[in-house]
């Protein structure tokens, strides 16, 4: 598995990450807004056709220079990950709601608003979207030292329909056994839990160590703690 994974070095510091995010996040937000507008607009056909022409022109401009495949996962020298294409959280991915998770006292938590783009049953969240968010939640909950575990098994129980709107995710580790980490995750609306998940997360035996990734991206044997010169 590791052979296919796209790790690369972005030799930048925190200020440069913040600068890039300040440019791309508003762009991604605009595209997210576009998706929502295309779903909800009631303008006439001529306006829809005009919009399509304008959007196609923008796509052509953006494709003037582009990567061959997905964004991959870039790391800085001090091992800050930049998974900006990630389907649930990616800063450059308008498909991502986007989910932002943080860990406090062993609990991973995040709030996100799910709008029209995430609909399954009318007015309610698509079951696949709930599973996507829970998968990311259990992944980040199991991750240690910025090194991921992969989802081996994700069991999802839909307790009641989740209305579109604000939801909260919480996850906690319930046990470990060798390379396996067991995680429980919940997705809730204002009235309580709507979907819950239990996951077996596995640190693959073939996955490179942090030092090996560092060596691969920097050409050195060990990660350097030094920040690059801006
Ligand atoms: C990516 C780089 C990131 C850098 C990040 C920057 C920082 C970010 C930090 C955090 C981000 C988090 C982002 C999370 C994203 C969401 C998570 C996902 O969506 S992951 C994608 C979906 N999952 C897959 O594609 C797995 C595909 N499957 C595999 O790769 C393998 O099958 C794998 C790793 C699951 C197991 O492979 P083996 O070769 O290591 O496993 P063996 O050695 O056979 O078994 C080890 C133990 O695990 C059990 N096991 C194996 N497969 C299992 C399974 N599918 N379910 C349950 N248990 C399983 C076995 O029974 C064994 O248990 P016994 O030690 O005997 O007790």
UniProtKB/TrEMBL annotation:
GO cellular component, one term: membrane
Region (Disordered): 211-230
Protein name: Acyl-coenzyme A thioesterase THEM4
Family matches, as CDD domains: PaaI_thioesterase
Membrane topology type: Peripheral membrane protein
Source species of the chain: Gordonia spumicola
Compartments it resides in: Cell projection, Ruffle membrane; Cytoplasm; Membrane
Keywords: Apoptosis, Cell membrane, Cell projection, Cytoplasm, Fatty acid metabolism, Hydrolase, Lipid metabolism, Membrane, Transit peptide
């Amino acid at each position: 598995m590791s052979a296919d994974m796209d790790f690369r070095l972005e030799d930048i510091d925190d200020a440069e990450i913040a600068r890039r995010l300040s440019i791309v996040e508003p762009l991604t937000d605009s595209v997210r807004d576009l998706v929502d507008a295309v779903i909800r607009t009631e303008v006439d056909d001529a306006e829809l056709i005009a919009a399509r022409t304008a959007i196609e022109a923008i796509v052509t401009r953006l494709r003037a220079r582009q990567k061959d495949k997905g964004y991959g996962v870039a790391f800085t020298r001090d091992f800050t990950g930049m998974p900006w294409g990630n389907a649930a959280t990616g800063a450059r991915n308008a498909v991502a709601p986007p989910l932002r998770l943080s860990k406090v006292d062993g609990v991973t938590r995040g709030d996100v608003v799910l709008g029209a783009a995430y609909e399954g049953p009318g007015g309610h969240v698509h079951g696949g979207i709930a599973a996507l968010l829970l998968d990311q939640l259990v992944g980040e909950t199991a991750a240690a030292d910025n090194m991921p575990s992969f989802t081996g098994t994700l069991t999802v129980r839909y307790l009641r329909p989740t209305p579109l709107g604000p939801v909260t995710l919480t996850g906690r580790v319930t046990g470990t056994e060798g390379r396996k980490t067991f995680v429980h995750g919940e997705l809730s609306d204002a009235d309580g839990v709507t979907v819950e998940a239990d996951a077996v997360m596995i640190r693959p035996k073939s996955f490179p160590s942090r030092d090996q990734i560092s060596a691969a991206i920097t050409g050195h044997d060990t990660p350097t703690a030094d920040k690059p010169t801006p």
